[in-house]
Amino acid sequence: MKMSKFLKRFAAAVAVAFSTDANDLAIHGYDAVSYFTSSGPAKGKAKYSASYRDAIYHFSNAANRDAFRENPEKYAPQFGGYCAMGVALNKKLDVDPTAWRVVDGKLYLNLNKQVQAK
């Protein structure tokens, strides 16, 4: 998956503002590191949390939290956690944390599984 110049510019623009809920929680409380494991996305717990770029991330265990703290750029979702398809349409859309894909070591989220299939 190659990113167009437009997507790279848009990614840089949204990088300063991550998609969060009213409590600054990112990815609807899902564990960002869990997307990179064979088991896939898991809901995080508030007792294992870390912040990155003014967003709060929850993790399913201390090891995942610590891995995120060591290298948040590796695990944080691309496009500020907004829907990857929405970015292509120049829109900031919320995501379904279960509609995801890791491509070239980067996490991409989508609005829903129908959008992800496209």
Strand-helix topology:
Elements: H1 5-14, E1 45-52, E2 55-59, H2 62-70, H3 72-75, H4 84-88, E3 96-103, E4 106-110, H5 113-117
Antiparallel strand pairs: 1-2, 3-4
Tell me what you see in this structure.
With 118 residues, the chain is of the alpha+beta class. It has helices at residues 5-14, 62-70, 72-75, 84-88, 113-117; strands at 45-52, 55-59, 96-103, 106-110. A two-stranded antiparallel sheet has the order 1-2. Strands 3-4 form a two-stranded antiparallel ribbon. The model has no long low-confidence stretch (mean pLDDT 87).
Q: How many beta-strand runs? A: 4
Strand content: 15-25%
Secondary-structure element pattern, one letter each = HEEHHHEEH
What count of helical segments does DSSP give? 5
Structural class: alpha+beta
Unreliable residue stretches: none
Radius of gyration: 13 Å
Strand order of the largest sheet: 1-2
Helix content: 25-40%
What's the N-to-C terminus distance?
13 Å
Averaging pLDDT over every residue, what do you get? Answer: 87
User: What characterizes the major β-sheet?
Assistant: 2 strands, antiparallel
Which geometry do the CA atoms define? globular
Question: What are the key terms here?
Answer:
two-stranded antiparallel sheet; alpha+beta; two-stranded antiparallel ribbon; single chain; 118 residues
Quick recap:
This protein is of the alpha+beta class and 118 residues long.
